[in-house]
Every structure is written in C-alpha cells, then in structure tokens.
C-alpha cells in the first residue's frame, strides 16, 4: 500500500529560508503571521492530509462517484472528511477576515494545497475550485453579492465551480452557446449545456455556486460576446438562507481514467436564474481571475502527485532486493542488493527528487509574489509582482503538470511490474496525474499563452520581472568559485533562454507559426531555467547552513542541486537547438500524409 508523509522539513526550509529574501514579514497584515503560526498551520494540514485525506485516496478511486436521481454521491468518507476540513477552518485559510477568513498569506496556501493534492487529488479539487470562485467574486462582484455569498464560501458551507466547457466548445471559448436572457428584475435566465464540470454536483456542501460563461442575446460573436453569471444550485434569500432549487441539473457524470472521486458533471441549464458578474460581454476577462488561480492550482497538482510518487518509489527502492551492484555485492548476507544500488534506479529517484523540490521552491516563489501583489504598500513592487505571476502562471501550469506526470511514471518504472498492477497504488498516481496536463487549458495552450501573450506584453515588461532578478543574482556572484557548480550551468541556460526569446520575437513577426512551433520547447526551456535559478539559490543557502547540520538535510540539498545542474539542466541545450531549427520541419509536412 502507498503511504504519504507531508514533507514538512522541506516546507519549513522553503518558507523560512528560501523565501527569507522576499521579506514577507514586512508587509501589512503579516505582523499577525509569526513564523511559529506558519509552522503550526503546516503541521495541522499535514495531519489532515496524512490521517483524513490519504486514507480515502485509494477507496475513493475504487468506488468513484455515483449519480442517482440527479444527485451525485461522492465516495464513502468524503462527506465526513469535508466536514472535518470545514471544522478545521481550512476553506477560509487565506480569505479576508471581513468575510470570516483568516487572512493568511497565499504562500502558506500554496504549501497546504500541495499536501491536499498529494494526499487525495479528487477530494482537493472540490476545495480548490471554491478557492478560485472566492477570488473571482472578491475581485469582480458587487458588494451585495460579496456580502451574500462570500461568508458562506469562506466557511465551506457552499462550494464553487467553473463552467466553461460545452460539447462543441473546449479550448475555443468563442464557440460557446449557452444563452442568458435578461429579465425585468435584473436577473438572467440561462439555457444551455455544460460538460466536464468538476464538482458541478456533489453531496459535500449545502449549496453550489456555479460560475457560468454564457452569451446575452445581443452579444457580439466570438470571445468578445461572453458574459459571466453566478448560478447557484439553490437560490439564496436576501438574508442568506437557502431558497428554492434553481433550474440547473446534473444529467450525467463521466467515467474516466483517474480522479474518480471527483465528480465530472454534465449540467443542463433550463431557464436557470443567474446573476451577472462584472460587465456585460466582458465575462471572459473576469473569468480569467478564476482561470489563473486554477492554473496555479493545477500546477500544484503536478507537484503534489510527484511528491507522493517519489516518496513511495524511494522507500520501495530501499526495500526491494533485485540484482547486485555493478561494483560487487553491497548486501552480501542477503540474496540480492536493494534496487537503490543500481545507477539507473538512482537516476530515476534523483530526477523525481530534483523535480519535486525544484517545483516546491518555484511554487513558493510565485506564492510570495502573489502576496506582494495583494499586500505590498509600494505600487511599483505590486506591479512587478503581478507581472511575474502573470508570466509564470502558464509555466507553473504546464511545466509542473508535465513533470508531475513524468515523476509518477518514473515511480511506476522504479516499481517495475509491481507498479503497473493495482496493489501498490502507484498506477493511481499515474492515472490521476494525467488529467492535469489537459484541463484548465491544455499544456500546448499554456505554451501559446507564454509565447504569444506574456512575452510581448507591455514591450517585454513581464519578462523583465524574471530576467532582471536572475541577471542580478548572477552578476552578484560572479567569480565565487564555491558556487560555480550552480551559477555556471545557470548562466548557460539563462543565455539560451535569452537567445531563444530574441529568436522567437524576431521570427514570429514574419510568421506566427514560428512562435506556435517553438512554444512548447520554449515553455520547458523557461521552466528548467527558472528551476535552475531556484536550485542555485537553495544550494547557496545549503552551503551556508551545512556546517551546523547533523541531519543530512543540507547535504542532500547540495547533492540534489548538483544532480539537477549536471543531469537535467543540459536538456536546455536540446530544447534550444530545437527552437532554433524553426518551424519548417513541423509546418512543411503535408496534411494528407498524416
Ligand atoms: C476530468 C475533467 C475535468 C474538467 N473540469 C472542468 C471544469 O471544471 N470546468 C470546465 O469548464 N471545463 C472542465 N474540463 C474541460 C477541460 O478544461 C477541457 O477538456 C480542456 O480545456 C480542453 O478542451 P477539449 O477537451 O475540448 O479539447 P480541444 O479544445 O478539442 O483540444 C484538443 C487538443 O488540441 C489542442 N488545441 C486546441 N486548440 C488549439 C490551438 N488554437 N492551438 C494549439 N493547440 C490547440 C489542445 O491543446 C489539445 O491538446 C474538464 C475536463 C476533464 C476531462
């Protein structure tokens, strides 16, 4: 059976040491968040993840969700777990105190969210979408709506969903058909069909707040004619109590490869009452608040599943006896040596470890910038932080989910045939990890977002929020021999990234297919370079702390940093060459030959 232990030691390192130079403690509201509080929150979430959520992960996968008479039943134990999650105050961890939240930083949320994804992704999805819907309403809804809905969402009594997809409309939201007809009382009546809606119906919460994209009758065609509506499952009375059932119904749930405990619903809107959120025809822009939050969350899903897969593979590789070390028996008294003696198994384990710790550091960095964007008194710093989050969002979503899936796959490889069969629970990690590369904007679309929108934005301003700190870091450490093992490879990768950026910018002016063909490799080049910067900084901290450490923690950090630089980062060279080859080999191929 698989096990999960929250990586608290590494999380404390990330929050207290890796992020020390971010000076989160100096921002308004952070005086109420002393380091001990952060540690206590992480420890409490570790208990929830290890003792409540993880024990339901396997059974939830085996049982799945059931639809009966229009009602979805989540797997046994989910309801009780949700109740305990609510009682612990987790839904309102980072929400504003005026709506009943605890006002903790997003950085802490990022770490707790990883633990939830690692321990039970299906369960976590119900909560993550509520977090996104809360942020969407906070930024775009009227005071009246906020006062009526947010306290209940913060309390976890009501959950949120995001309803974009329709049978004919996936990536291309311009094809959306759901109609919203205005009524004399200012509400709208919505008619249409949504598919693949996560948590669109479930038995965990008292009400479901569906955030629905639809088209008003006079709307311009395409994405410029989309509006956003709040469509509750139960209408809400002015005093906040639940009114009659709204006409939005679950007609089917999907049977799918993974995340079986998460309900994936077809919803039929049959003159459902909806409330316009934000401006008419400007719904997509508003929805991007939720989509961006969801993209970061989905990235964390890759990290979480990568972590739990790594932990199990590492434990298995120490126990399973097969073959002998190439240099002679390490375990002569036993019939064979453990898997961990074999270089190829070690390669896989170190790859997994370098990825997961690298992703954790990157995600915390993004979390810290989210906090700066929300809280910093200096508007210049707020703007820089916003730019950075916008730039990194597609990278976190796509790079992390690709790495998460690769890591889960590597875990299966370490287990061999015992990973492919169900007994050990490893194949579930692989199945669960796969969807994260697809939903919330498939990874190819994230790459296009990075190259097509984020790079050229404001004449490269977003890009500078990343390039400048990396350049500064390298300049400040020039000539420091003890750090050369990380700074030299980082400088090379960074140089490739800069040259690839210039190449794409120049070539795509003449031919947009150049940008489209380069996008995916570029996103990975970007992700690896960002991760290299984070590993360099982690290695530097480890060098400073290692002499007083008896636990081996900092030594392992240094060793993993070295592995990353020597065995993973060189991939940037291949990506760079592929980008520089241009779009010809992709676009010249004749369609009819496929
Ligand atoms: C389990 C599950 C849960 C989901 N939850 C939700 C949810 O809660 N809410 C919701 O609204 N939706 C949800 N979805 C839908 C999901 O977001 C979509 O499946 C996804 O956005 C892709 O749309 P599609 O499946 O129609 O694929 P398509 O749009 O048909 O795309 C197919 C492939 O073509 C590529 N492609 C498409 N257009 C382009 C382009 N212009 N350039 C380059 N490549 C392109 C894509 O990258 C993809 O690889 C969920 C889906 C699943 C399976």
Give the helices and strands, then pairings.
Elements: H1 8-18, H2 35-53, H3 57-63, E1 66-68, E2 71-73, H4 78-87, H5 106-119, H6 121-140, H7 143-154, E3 158-163, E4 179-182, E5 188-198, E6 207-214, E7 227-232, E8 234-236, E9 242-245, E10 248-253, E11 264-277, H8 283-319, H9 343-375, H10 379-415, H11 417-420, H12 426-434, H13 443-454, H14 461-476, H15 484-510, H16 512-545, H17 553-568, H18 571-580, H19 584-587
Helix pairs in contact: 1-2, 1-9, 2-5, 5-6, 5-8, 5-9, 6-7, 6-8, 8-9, 8-10, 8-12, 9-10, 9-16, 9-17, 10-12, 10-13, 10-14, 10-16, 13-16, 15-16, 15-17, 15-18, 16-17, 16-18
The chain binds flavin-adenine dinucleotide.
Flavin-adenine dinucleotide (FAD) binds at residues 162-165, 170-171, 196-198, 256, 264, 435, 438-442, 444-445, 448.
Written overview of the protein:
The chain has helices at 8-18, 35-53, 57-63, 78-87, 106-119, 121-140, 143-154, 283-319, 343-375, 379-415, 417-420, 426-434, 443-454, 461-476, 484-510, 512-545, 553-568, 571-580, 584-587; strands spanning 66-68, 71-73, 158-163, 179-182, 188-198, 207-214, 227-232, 234-236, 242-245, 248-253, 264-277. The radius of gyration is 24 Å and the shape is globular. Strands 3, 4, 5, 6, 7, 10 and 11 form a seven-stranded mixed β-sheet that branches. The mean pLDDT is 97. It starts with 7 loop residues before the first helix and ends in a 7-residue tail after the last helix. It has 594 residues and is an alpha+beta fold. The chain is built from 19 helices and eleven strands. The longest helix has 37 residues, at 283-319. Helices cover 56% and strands 11% of the residues. A hairpin with a 5-residue loop joins strand 4 (179-182) and strand 5. It binds flavin-adenine dinucleotide. Residues 162-165, 170-171, 196-198, 256, 264, 435, 438-442, 444-445, 448 line the site of flavin-adenine dinucleotide. Flavin-adenine dinucleotide (FAD) binds at residues 162-165, 170-171, 196-198, 256, 264, 435, 438-442, 444-445, 448.
């Amino acid at each position: 059976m698989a096990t999960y232990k929250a990586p608290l030691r590494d999380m404390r390192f990330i929050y207290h040491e890796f992020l020390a130079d971010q000076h989160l403690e100096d921002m308004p509201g952070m005086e109420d968040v002393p380091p001990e509080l952060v540690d206590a929150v992480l420890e409490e979430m570790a208990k929830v993840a290890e003792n409540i959520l993880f024990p339901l992960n396997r059974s939830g996968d085996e049982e799945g969700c059931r639809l009966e008479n229009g009602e979805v039943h989540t797997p046994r134990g989910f309801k009780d777990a949700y109740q305990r999650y609510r009682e612990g105050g987790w839904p309102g961890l980072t929400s504003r105190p005026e709506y009943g939240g605890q006002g903790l930083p997003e950085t802490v949320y990022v770490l707790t969210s990883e633990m939830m994804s690692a321990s039970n992704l299906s369960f976590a999805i119900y909560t993550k979408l509520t977090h996104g819907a809360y942020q969407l309403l906070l930024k775009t809804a009227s005071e009246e709506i906020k006062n009526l809905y947010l306290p209940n969402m913060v309390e976890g009594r009501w959950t949120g969903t995001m309803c974009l997809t329709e049978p004919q409309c996936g990536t291309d939201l311009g094809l959306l058909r759901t109609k919203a007809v205005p009524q004399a009382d200012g509400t709208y009546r919505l008619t249409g069909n949504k598919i693949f809606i996560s948590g669109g119906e479930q038995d965990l919460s008292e009400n479901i707040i569906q955030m629905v994209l639809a088209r008003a009758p006079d709307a311009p065609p395409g994405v410029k004619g989309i509006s956003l509506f709040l469509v509750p499952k139960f209408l809400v009375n002015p005093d906040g109590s639940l009114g009659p059932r709204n006409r939005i119904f679950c007609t089917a749930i999907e049977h799918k490869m993974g995340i079986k405990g998460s309900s994936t619903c077809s919803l039929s809107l049959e003159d459902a009452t909806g409330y316009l959120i934000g401006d008419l025809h400007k719904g997509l822009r508003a929805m991007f608040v939720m989509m961006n939050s969801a993209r970061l969350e989905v990235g964390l899903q890759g990290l979480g599943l990568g972590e739990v897969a790594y932990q199990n593979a590492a434990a298995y590789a120490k126990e399973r006896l097969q073959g002998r070390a190439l240099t002679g028996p390490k375990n002569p008294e036993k019939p064979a040596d453990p898997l961990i003696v074999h270089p190829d198994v070690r390669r896989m384990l170190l790859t997994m470890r370098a990825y997961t710790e690298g992703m954790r550091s990157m995600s915390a960095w993004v979390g810290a910038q989210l906090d700066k964007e929300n809280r910093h008194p200096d508007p210049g710093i707020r703007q820089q932080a916003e730019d950075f989050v916008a730039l990194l969002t597609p990278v976190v979503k796509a790079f992390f989910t690709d790495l998460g899936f690769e890591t889960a796959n590597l875990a299966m490889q370490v287990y061999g045939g015992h990973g492919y069969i169900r007994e050990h629970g490893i194949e579930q990690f692989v199945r669960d990890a796969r969807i994260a590369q697809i939903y919330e904007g498939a990874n190819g679309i994230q790459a296009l977002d990075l190259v097509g929108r984020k790079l050229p934005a404001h004449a490269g301003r977003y890009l500078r929020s990343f390039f400048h700190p990396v350049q500064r870091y390298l300049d400040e450490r020039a000539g420091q021999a003890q750090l050369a093992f990380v700074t030299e490879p980082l400088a090379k990768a960074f140089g490739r990234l800069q040259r690839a950026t210039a190449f794409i910018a120049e070539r795509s002016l003449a031919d947009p297919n150049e940008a489209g063909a380069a996008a995916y490799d570029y996103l990975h080049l970007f992700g690896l370079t960002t991760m290299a910067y984070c590993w360099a900084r982690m290695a530097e901290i480890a060098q400073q702390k290692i002499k007083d450490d008896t636990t081996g923690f900092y030594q392992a950090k240094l060793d993993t940093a070295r592995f990353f630089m020597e065995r993973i980062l060189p991939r940037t060279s291949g990506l760079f060459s592929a980008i520089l080859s241009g779009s010809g080999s992709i676009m010249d191929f004749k369609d009819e030959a496929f």
